[in-house]
Amino acid sequence: ELRTPLTRIRLGLELVEAAPARKAELASDIAELDQLVEEILLVSRLDAADGLDVREDIDLAALAAEECARYDGCGVQGQSVTVRGDPTLLRRMIRNLVENAKLHGKPPIEVAIARHGDQATLSVSDRGPVIAADARERLFSPFYRVPGRSGPKDTGLGLALVRQIARRHGGDAAYHPERGSSFTVTLPALRN
């Protein structure tokens, strides 16, 4: 139901005789609304479900490399670590972390994957400003935006989804102020 008005607006926009720049701006606004609806629906689905619908063995480094390839100034390093989970959700988790770094940080964006015992860690770091200590835990709350640092394309759902997806996979997400901003996700790793 949330998408029906967006579809009608998108169709109406194609019929409108508008300046190309204005038409592009409206199309961007529609895409932004569509993304927000998608994130709200995903939060709702994750809240309502008890477990994962899909469980596959996934190479976390390969998945991170695929996502990082979509962005300029994003590099991946580390080792291959296999985790078990939903590849679509894990891809969304990585994308949200990289998007967050792109939106709020400063390049380069560095994605690192490592294995520490029975844990896989995925860190996304950038050279952006460090977030104040009193705001760090709230970063993972739905719709929270750091005062004075959030832009118009920031819905406040990206990091909440990251933590929700990590926890759904038996892990967690945290913020670490190292050389700028760094978010780390830990997940159970499969034995090699």
> In one word, what is the shape?
globular
Strand order of the largest sheet: 2-4-5-7-6
- Number-wise, the strands total 7
| Strand residue content | 15-25%
Low-confidence stretches: none
The average pLDDT is 84
Biggest sheet record: 5 strands, mixed
Order of helices and strands: HHEHEEHEEHEE
Q: What is the terminal separation in angstroms?
A: 45 Å
Residues in helix, %: 40-55%
The helix-and-strand class reads alpha+beta
Helix count from the secondary structure assignment: 5
Q: Could you characterize the architecture of this molecule?
A:
The chain is built from 5 helices and 7 strands. Helix 2 runs parallel beside helix 5 (158-168) and helix 3 (60-68) packs across helix 4 (87-104). The chain is globular and about 60 Å long. The protein has helices at 3-15, 20-48, 60-68, 87-104, 158-168; strands at residues 56-59, 74-78, 82-85, 109-116, 119-126, 172-176, 181-188. The mean pLDDT is 84. The chain has a 5-stranded mixed beta sheet, covered by helices on one side. A hairpin with a 2-residue loop joins strand 4 and strand 5. The termini are far apart. The protein is of the alpha+beta class.
